[in-house]
Design a protein that fits this description.
The protein is α+β, with helices and mostly antiparallel strands.
Amino acid sequence: MSLNYCQGPDCHTYTTQDRLKGTKPNKTYQTRRRKSFYYGKENFCSLGCQNDWFNDFGDRAINHFGRTTEAKHLTEDNAWVKREHWSYERERNPNLPEFYYINRVTNEQRPLTEAQYNDSNYTLNT
């Protein structure tokens, strides 16, 4: 079992009992280690550590990967998203498909098979 370290730049400065490590005369606060974390795609132990990282490195990351410089527009062509009808919805209306595409602009729905729903490369031929 490998353990991951929290990527928060100031994680070791927060004084919590689970960060206090070492033997009696040499105890220090240390960066948290866990098998998995819950924040920032499992890179941070808390929202505080995630925010610390973004405050220190966010501008550089955005500039590196591409800063948005103009408004994006949701149109009929790019508004299609995959959805799943919940079981309680299908109990009330058995004609509903389990999986479907919905256009968030027009509210048009198109049924999908489970294989199409699970295929991350599948798109509608619109």
